[in-house]
Amino acid sequence: MVLEVDQVLEQIGQFGPFQIRILAMFLFIFIPLTYQTLLMVFVAYEPPWMCTTNSSACLLSNSTGREIYSTSTQPIELYHRRCKLNRTDWKFADPELYEGPVHTIVTQFDLVCDNSFHAWLANSMLFFGWALGAIILGMIADKYGRRSVLFPSAACVIAITFSMSFAQASWVVIALRFFSGFFLGGSILTMFVLAAELVGPAKRALSSTMVWFYFTLALMVLGLQAYFIKDWKLLCIISTVPFVFIFIFWKFIPESVRWLLVVGRKDQAREILEQVAKVNKKEMPKEDLRVPVVKHNRGFLELFGTPRLALLTLLQCYAWLVNGLVYYAVSMSAGDFGGSIYLNFVLTSIVEFPANILVIDNCNRFGRKHTVVWYTVVGAISCLVVSFIPSGTDNIGYIAGRVAAGTLGKLCITTSFNSLYVFSAELFPTMIRNSGMGLLSVISRVGAALAPFVVQLTRINAILPFALMSGLTFLAALACWFLPETRGKPTLEVMGDDDPQHLEQGKH
Length: 508
Known about the structure:
Elements: E1 2-3, H1 5-12, H2 17-38, H3 40-43, E2 49-51, H4 76-80, E3 90-92, H5 105-109, H6 117-144, H7 146-164, H8 170-197, H9 204-228, H10 232-238, H11 257-262, H12 266-279, E4 288-289, H13 307-332, H14 341-350, H15 352-365, H16 368-388, H17 396-427, H18 433-455, H19 464-481
Parallel strand pairs: 1-4
Antiparallel strand pairs: 2-3
């Protein structure tokens, strides 16, 4: 008699001391990696500007000399006015006149006017690198093992971010962000896989959700660190150097048992399971382990094998693109809501805790499709509300309204995004599930890479960023409405063109 890995885990402990220890280690690995996703909110922050003392070319007739101008200044022409002035006629605002980072790549490399796109590009390049790294390092992990990719990739991310603090040109920062994203794509994806594979089937959702909680916790800590560290170089150093100790975990985090079985290393897989049983104080079953049968397919081409499957794939691609864009764009807009950029950043991060809980409850109670659709709709409405509340004002009511609507939007888009992970994994048949989820992951990173450019539309008109996000999100909800519900239905192994579950025109 032979046993599947899940059957063995049910006997030796699905979520015992061994798994808890591994997940605790993942927390410390996850923090410096998660920092990279939104570090540029503070590193590439553009402080407001003001006229230099006695600059007749800059000072307006009714100026006091203490006015500051930012992208939220109305009319926006006042903000752009400096591009027509000599550089000696204006300066970045004195720190006591605003709350936000003081020394950033914008101030160091003077990334304003014609050079301002360098800061946005540095933000985007991480996600372009992430998309490429997820593909290439994913293939390497399939060949050489998850653990062999996780630690070298994490080491590269930490080393690259640390070295970025010594950059002497903006193009160096842009290049380093791309390479940081490349290795980030391999390390985070690998941790998700290991977190899911080391626990039993009954605890897999809990394990994956804990990793999402780590992501949220790391973002909150980043916001608090940035509040006390106003210099971008020091922030990069503090975000990396204290975490070099994570590499001692190499000795304690095992390789994927399922991968070992697939590549024929059955004895090593059994040794790891025996270690799990020992730590969990359970008895390892004597039965042999079943070696999974790997079926080869044409990869991404299989996702477009029939007209209906192609439509199913394209609808999901659009939904993932928009969710990736809006999720990161709302977080990057923390400084545009009004009030404190630090408080706004922490608020838009902390709402991810209830969002993760809502995913578990609502997907089971209301179904995957309805959870995704209705949270996407409410997220779109929230973005629309933000776009029409005046910005660039000291009115507490307006500021509170923008922060509240933006925070609600982040809650909804996070719930929608995380629910999509569950929904899409069940929509794709088994034979092409890995290819499908890989494609969607890449598409979402492309959306994230576009987020900085959407946020900067405020330089044209303050309404544009959130109005555009609202429109795109409404269309994403519509696209998801035409996907079939998967709750309570068996996962398909293959999918034919005439499969009734393939695409149901909004029946649910």
